[in-house]
Write a structure and sequence with these properties.
By secondary structure, the chain is mainly alpha-helical. The protein has a single domain, classed as MetI-like fold, CATH 1.10.3720. The chain has helices spanning 9-23, 28-34, 48-77, 86-98, 101-112, 116-140, 144-152, 157-187, 201-209, 212-240. α3 (48-77) packs across α6 (116-140) and α8 runs antiparallel to α10.
């Protein structure tokens, strides 16, 4: 039974998020009352919509690349030809996850310059591990009996992967992508430290200028963006998960 749209948490979070993106100015009296020494009360160096689209583009590019590479590596190390490389792939992905994004930015800026490119690189490396781990777990979790039945029907290795393994592993793979994307949304804010326009820009400007309202505005929007994305992934996961 489908849930009524007005009962969906994602719908309410989405409405609030869109309202704040397009009409944060409505809260100017509240910020003016709470912080009478801060002028202007609402961050205005760039529009919140512009910052959101830039933030979304960064996360989409980095997460898309991490998804393609992560699933590709998982497929490779679960084939007979790539099993010997599994430990190496796991170690490389773990290093990418544990290496601080700020350190990646510091190393990438001299080579890639300021702006979105070093941020995308940091997000890509930081988001790779959960996708690789979940993709391997999902593919290896396909029951042997199912594989044997598919092979007995005459499916080639490629057909087995495409028509059996990946569809059955999809919910587990999606869980890894969900974690990676949600982390990326929060982590992308640090890109503003190296010149990328993100929803973290008000946060960094607020911290630099001792303007707490800007920090609050940016932090609330980033949090709502992450929550909304997670809720949408949860809905997609329920769609992909077979009943029972």
């Amino acid at each position: 039974m489908r849930q009524a749209p007005w009962k969906s948490p994602a719908a309410w979070v989405g409405l609030l998020f869109v309202f704040l993106l397009f009409d944060m100015q409505q809260f100017s009296p509240i910020f003016g009352w709470g912080f009478p020494d801060i002028r202007p009360e609402i961050f205005n160096r760039a529009s919140f919509v512009e910052m959101f689209w830039s933030h979304l583009e960064l996360v989409a590019v980095a997460s898309g690349a991490a998804t393609v590479v992560g699933i590709g590596l998982a497929i490779f190390v679960t084939r007979p030809i790539g099993r010997d490389f599994r430990t190496l792939v796991n170690v490389a992905a773990t290093i990418g996850q544990t290496f601080p994004p700020a350190a990646v930015l510091a190393l990438a800026v001299p080579a890639l310059g300021f702006g979105p490119r070093p941020t995308a690189m940091a997000l890509f490396l930081y988001g790779l591990l959960p996708i690789v781990e979940n993709s391997i777990a999902g593919i290896e979790g396909v029951p042997t009996a199912v594989r044997d039945a598919a092979s007995g029907m005459g499916l080639s290795r490629w057909q087995l992967l495409r028509d059996v393994e990946l569809p059955l592993a999809a919910p587990v793979i999606l869980a890894g992508v969900r974690v990676s994307v949600t982390i990326g949304i929060g982590t992308a804010t640090i890109g503003s430290a190296v010149g990328a326009l993100t929803l973290g820009t008000p946060i960094f400007d607020g911290l630099a200028g001792n303007k707490l309202p800007y920090v609050i505005q940016g932090a609330v929007l980033v949090a709502l963006f992450a929550i909304l994305t997670d809720l949408l992934f949860a809905r997609l996961s329920r769609t992909l998960t077979p009943p029972g």
